[in-house]
Design brief:
Strand content: under 5%
Helix content: over 70%
Number of strands: 0
Length: 208
């Protein structure tokens, strides 16, 4: 619960800074990046509450809180993918990725209404991260800007944290794989945040 709450606070602070950057730049990419951090913050808070207060909640209360956590992570992955499309892809490619992101999150939400396994959350988030990693890597190869390395680094570290979460690694009886997952994810979201601050919209008629 503690690591979830710390992650939630960290994401809320980053969302606030991204909101300021969005106002400065008028960038839709930064707007969506900001909402991704808002959703992550809410999801982490809900997840921490589900873990920490499980003994004090009725079954339906716990299920509702856990469901909110899983849906917020889906919302975050949707916003990150849409934000990336505005920043890196022009014209038809950008519209295609946004349409795909909308379809993907709709399928995810429909599926998660009847399922709770965290593996499905990782599949949803991981698929978006893979798409974003591909787009960002392509842009990095084209533009060779050091500023384009923050987001790929954050995504790769997110993959590491997800692998840890699915493992049986326990460093201490009060610090298991879920806690370590949250700690690694804190660093990953910071890297994504730094990359998000640099995002700017591509013109709709620019080359994809």
């Amino acid at each position: 619960m503690a690591t979830d709450y710390i992650l939630a606070l960290l994401c809320a602070l980053m969302a606030s800074r991204l909101r300021e950057k969005a106002r400065e730049t008028g960038s839709r990419a930064v707007v969506f990046w900001r909402w991704a951090f808002v959703a992550t913050s809410v999801g982490a808070m809900a997840g921490g509450s589900a873990h920490g207060f499980a003994l004090f909640l009725t079954d339906w209360q716990w299920a509702a809180i856990w469901k909110a956590s899983t849906l917020m992570i889906g919302a975050a992955s949707f916003c990150l993918l849409v934000g990336t499309s505005y920043a890196r892809l022009g014209g038809g490619w950008g519209r295609a990725v946004r349409s795909m992101a909308l379809l993907k999150v709709a399928v995810y939400v429909t599926w998660m209404i009847g399922h709770d396994d965290f593996r499905f959350v990782i599949f949803e988030y991981g698929s978006s991260m893979l798409l974003i990693l591909g787009i960002e890597s392509w842009r990095l190869l084209r533009d060779r800007s050091i500023g384009l390395t923050w987001i790929p680094a954050g995504i790769l570290l997110s993959f590491v944290s997800s692998a840890v979460q699915q493992s049986d690694l326990v460093l201490h009886r009060n610090f298991n794989q879920n806690d370590l997952f949250h700690v690694i994810q804190m660093v990953a979201v910071f890297l994504l945040y730094r990359g998000g601050l640099l995002l700017r919209d591509r013109r709709s008629g620019s080359e994809a």
